[in-house]
Amino acid sequence: MTISMYAASVPVLQQMLGSLTNLLTKAEAHATARKIEPTVLLQARLFPDMLPLNRQVEIACDFAKGIASRLAGQDVPVFEGTDQTFAECQARIAKVLALLASFTPEQIDGSEARQVVIQPGTARERTFAGQTYLLGYGLPQFFFHITTAYAILRHNGLEVGKKDYMGSY
User: Fold this and answer.
1) DSSP three-state, residue 18
2) pLDDT per residue over 81-116, tens digit each?
3) Nearest CA to 68 among 147, 7, 1?
4) In order of start, what are the domains of the chain with their CATH numbers?
5) What's this model's pTM, rounded to 2 decimal places?
6) CA distance linking residue 135 with residue 98, whole number of Å
């Protein structure tokens, strides 16, 4: 039995962005209950040379929309701005979830060999076959940023566990 490129991408991205939405909701409630300024959590990092929570959310969203769009052979939409509030982070995730919901299996299935070029025209340009891009680059990058966002929140006292990380499946 084989798994389709759609099944290996869009539902996985949706599940984890859903869990990220729930984590951010809990984080905002945590900040309110403990009288922590929300920007303190949004700017929290695991280590000084790592990106803060709000950027982890943005990058996870960028990978999610990039993965689905590239596998479907479409241009990746650009969502401008740097989110500074929980509401802005939630709105970004909602936009990406809406984008993901617009893709059909027919658009993505069969993209295993589709050429995917990231950072075209730059010194960092890389070309992948679709399956290699999804499994060897896109999903690992996406999960890194979702996991880092989870770890930042857990490190800052949010009482969450694996069930919160996994979300609904």
Assistant:
1) helix
2) 889 999 999 999 999 999 999 999 999 999 999 999
3) 7
4) 10-107+130-166 (1.20.120.450)
5) 0.95
6) 23
Q: What is the DSSP string of 32-101?
A: HHTT--HHHHHT--SSTTSPPHHHHHHHHHHHHHHHHHHHTT-PPP---S---SHHHHHHHHHHHHHHHH
Contact at 8 Å (CB) between 92 and 57? yes
In this structure, are residues 99 and 65 in contact, taking their beta carbons and an 8 Å threshold? yes
> What are the phi and psi torsion angles at 66 (to 5°)?
-70, -45
The phi and psi torsions of 129 (rounded to 5 degrees) equal -80, 150
Which helix (H) or strand (E) segment is 128 a member of? Answer: strand 126-129
Tokens 């984590």, residue?
23
Q: Both tokens of residue 2? A: 């084989």
Q: From CA 16, how far away is CA 168, in angstroms rounded?
A: 8
Single-letter amino acid code for the residue at 68: A
Answer whether 64's CB lies under 8 Å from 96's CB. yes
